[in-house]
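Hi support team,

I'm opening this ticket because the web form for multi-chain structure prediction keeps timing out on my end. I have pasted the exact lines I submitted so you can reproduce it. The total is 476 residues across two entries, so I didn't expect it to be a heavy job. Is there a limit I'm missing, or should I split the entries? Thanks in advance, R.K.
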Amino acid sequence: MGIWFSLVALAALTLLGLIGANVPGLNYVFAVIIPYIAITVFIVGIIVRIVIWARSPVPFRIPTTGGQQKSLSFIKQNRLDNPSSYLGVLGRMALEVLFFRSLFRNTKAELKEGPNLTYGANKWLWLFSLAFHWSFLIIFLRHFRFFTQPIPFFVPYLQEIDGFFQIWVPIIYITDCVIVAALSYLFFRRVFDSKIRYISLPSDYFPLLLISGIAITGILMRYFFKTDLVAVKELMLGILSFSPSVHAVGLSSWFYLHLFFVCSLLIYFPMSKLVHLTGIFMSPTRNLANTNRMVRHVNPWIDELKMKPHTYEEYEDEFRTVMKGAGMPLDKEESHVS
Amino acid sequence: MYDTGKVLIGILIFILLFTSPILINLAGGKSSVKANPQLPQSGKCIESREYMKDYHMEMLNTWRDKVVRQDVRFLKKADGTYFLLNGVKAEMSLTKTCMKCHENKAKFCDECHNYLDVKPYCWDCHIDPSLVKKEIMK
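Hello R.K., no limit was hit. The queue was backed up. Here is the completed structure from your submission:
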């Protein structure tokens, strides 16, 4: 079900992109106006999402922990999986964001002959997710050669390392191959594993298909159906320096399709699960130190509820006479508030 | 909003990262500079301008394969006759054929290549012919 919906959505986007490329009056809309809309929606949308998250109170520390918490001095604490300090949280977040540490612990449950339910390590998802995300980042950074003048210092290095094998003309980038392999794994894992297919939604298939569309149009344009890159760069520089102009000559349908897919992704980004880009930094299960017992955490909306903290001292003050009358032991004979 | 300070720093980093192309263009002030390859005044290229813009690297690669691997040295037209350059059979050679007309590497090849940060490895082995002449003149 979800997969068909996503495929139809992608087909509709493809059709729209091709219309934008081939109807002369629409060139300006698809090459300039839609990119501006997309960039604005992306940046404003993500900020709105961050503000919505930040408005939710997290009165208690709720990190998911995976190791010994800070305890007595002779018990060794697991500082990264159960951090109690700011530095520990930083290390944990860095490992999570850069290397997907929690996904590395992913396990797979399988029902085998017997019947036996077995749990096994499953590193493939971790491996291909990592490969996909890093490839995407490197490809995005490589694209700065079309975005800016002067070209940032890191682009030549990335191109050189990425094209290390010097195969074919133009040189095949390693990340181009890796991202296609990784996207295929991530997509077909949802198609062929019945358990995962059962829990997959259109919002799971669609981003994978859309990003595949971007990758495939980009790869085709680089290696097979070439487009005039000078015209591409002039267009992108124009957009990104607020003086847009379209030289429709030289911009092929493949380019329009590629650009339209990217714009669709940017617009789709803030309203989909893809906001985990910023969401990971806002996750209270990741970004909090486990200091529930070490530090007193006061409920942040306590003033609104008019619920003041009520300590035992105050309790005793309130009920001293009654408690005395009933012969109960008291910490203090007289009120400490005089 | 809770943890306002930290969240605002996060939002600021996000904005800076994702508007960095715009900021670099504004700071660099070179975004209006365009690639301006110097074209020869006379003569006719062996292929159309559009084909050359998009596919010259593939053509040169095919030439390389033909000359180096198959020992086919001279350029043929679609009808099977040899392509003539100044009355002589034209070689499939970047330096001997293309650069007869497109003489200046810096003002022709490099214009677009630098604009798009393309570093073709032609020049790992080949030498810009104009530089050879200068060396001999010394």
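A quick check on our side: The first strand of chain B starts at residue 84 and ends at 85. Let us know if the file doesn't open in your viewer.
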